[in-house]
Amino acid sequence: MELYDYRGFRVIQRSPFGNIYHCCTQKTASQWFRRVFCDPVVFRYTGLKPFRYRQLGLREACFDEALPERTIAIHLYVDYATYASIPKPEAFKTFFILRDPRDIVVSWYFSAKYSHKPVYPIPELRRNLDHLDMQEGLKYLIDAWDGFGLFEAQRSWMSSGQDVENIRIFRFEDFSADNYLFLKELLAYLEIEMPEPDFEALYDRHKFSEIARGREQGVEDTQSHFRKGVSGDWKTYFDDSVMAHFREVTGDLLQVLGYQD
Predict the structure, then answer these.
(1) Helices vs. strands in the chain: H and E counts, helices first
(2) Parallel, antiparallel, or unpaired: how do β-strands 2-3 and 49-52 relate?
(3) Structural domains for the chain
(4) What are the backbone dihedrals phi and psi of residue 238, each rounded to the nearest 5 degrees, phi first?
(5) What is the mean pLDDT of each run of 10 residues along the chain (261 residues)?
(6) Which residues of 215-245 are buried (b: 16+ CB within 10 A; e: fewer)?
(7) What DSSP assignment string belongs to 44-81?
(8) Which residues of 121-144 are buried (b: 16+ CB within 10 A; e: fewer)?
């Protein structure tokens, strides 16, 4: 776990929340959210320091104590039950980023095979993918991430009966459709108010073309962690056999999450 240091930055406005929790699974733009919430302008208009949870998460995540007070917990890779186990202050806000699990599988394929740093479990995934064609590789990753608990974690958030006052589920598809409007809506939900020039500068620092070194959203680079940034890519890569395997492994997950089969 890592707490960022913002000594020397003046706080202009303090958040009414003791903590903010960013919950997700992998491959839901978690590194983009990390960049945004680590930006000093967010600290200036919240007084909340970013707190990075560094564990892989999902079935491995465990919290025996509360997170540091006055922080924004960045990319908590957790299912709903694990999130619920975290002791929380009286005032808090939580958001979970949901993404079509088929797009997650495709994103993991390119990430595991080409762009992700060789940290657990990437080396083993990469070695195995090197011996498989793409369709068999996608099936392999469906099984692997089912084993890691990714699909189970997504299902848990939709089936939790969560407190709608303090928790909101945002969809990656809305993020990919319009990063600007998505960020506006997210900050409004979190009651983070900042002057328009500061918001515009925050957005410009973290828009896709900036972090992808000039490449526009939708233009693919398989060697980049920010490969493409679009939704519906699974339609290009899932053939009938991959889709059948996905259904066999995940059951009615698409319907539970609100995606069309």
Answers:
(1) 14, 6
(2) antiparallel
(3) 2-257 (3.40.50.300)
(4) -80, 115
(5) 73 97 94 93 96 80 91 95 94 97 95 89 93 97 96 91 82 93 97 97 86 50 51 94 98 95 71
(6) beeeeeeeebebbbbebebbeebbeeebeeb
(7) HTT--EEEE--S--GGG---SSPPPSSEEEEEEE--HH
(8) ebeebeebbeeeeeeebbbbbbeb
